[in-house]
Specification:
single chain; Class II Histocompatibility Antigen, M Beta Chain, Chain B, domain 1; Immunoglobulin-like; 14 strands; globular; MHC_II_a/b_N; Ig-like_fold; Ig-like domain-containing protein; MHC II; disulfide bond
Length: about 240
């Protein structure tokens, strides 16, 4: 088993059973650069520590009943991160020269959170899964220029096969013709993966796209109806002529 794989799995606590209705998870993961501490329920994040901003985050929408982890949750996460890095150092000493596992993301998708309406606020989602080790780096561009305002990314979420999933988000206001892209970088990639979202072709809801099908069928129906009426009149007049 690879060094980082061993550490990450030792840092995960899964609670649940085959007949359980719900599954909760507590993840503590680290490298010498990155670190993550997260609590989740049924594959949804309930709480995580943002070590860059030095705060704890409750990412659930406001209509969900808040599950609090206490005032000292962030300080506890800092202690967990310190302990994780101590274990990392010990494992590095005991498993030196072990080859590192690097699995590139198996799938990257870009889509909107809500149905798109022009000039109405929405969120772009870049869904990255199937990679190891964590994390990935995701950057956004709008019309070819880097944009960071309104962007966020969750902590790596472990999959059952030992790989990870991360979801990056970008708040945006759809405008006709705008082009967005998310760029994914990972140790297992030889070059970044780029997924593009075009508001004109990808984001336009079906109600805003021109459609000629109903008009054509309606026109054909009128023509057939007129021909039918004309044919009926012809046969009536012809029948009257022979009476």
């Amino acid at each position: 088993m690879k060094m980082k794989e061993l550490l990450l799995f030792l840092s995960c606590v899964l609670c649940g059973s085959a007949d359980a209705l719900h599954t909760d998870i507590h993840v503590v993961g680290c490298s010498y650069i990155h670190g993550g501490v997260m609590f989740g329920l049924d594959r949804e994040e309930l709480w995580y520590a943002d070590f860059e901003k030095q705060v704890d985050v409750y990412p659930q929408p406001p209509f969900i009943q808040l599950i609090s982890f206490g005032d000292g949750a962030y300080e506890t996460a800092v202690s967990n991160l310190y302990g994780c890095r101590q274990l990392l150092q010990l494992s590095r000493t005991g498993m030196k020269d072990y080859p590192l596992q690097r699995d590139a993301p198996s799938r990257v998708m870009i889509y909107t959170r809500d149905e798109v309406e022009l000039t109405v606020k929405n969120t772009l989602i870049c869904h990255v899964t199937g990679f190891y080790p964590a994390p990935v780096k995701v950057s956004w561009t709008k019309n070819g220029r880097i944009t960071t305002g309104g962007s966020s990314i969750n902590n790596p979420y472990p999959n059952k096969n030992g790989t990870f999933t991360q979801i990056a988000r970008l708040k945006f206001i759809p405008q006709q013709g705008d082009v967005y892209s998310c760029t994914v970088e990972h140790l297992g990639l030889t070059k970044p993966l780029i997924k593009t979202y075009n508001v004109e072709t990808s984001g336009m809801p079906e109600t805003l796209k021109p459609s000629f099908g109903p008009a054509v069928f309606c026109g054909l129906g009128v023509i057939i109806g007129v021909l039918g009426a004309a044919g009926g009149t012809f046969f009536i007049l012809k029948a009257n002529k022979w009476i």
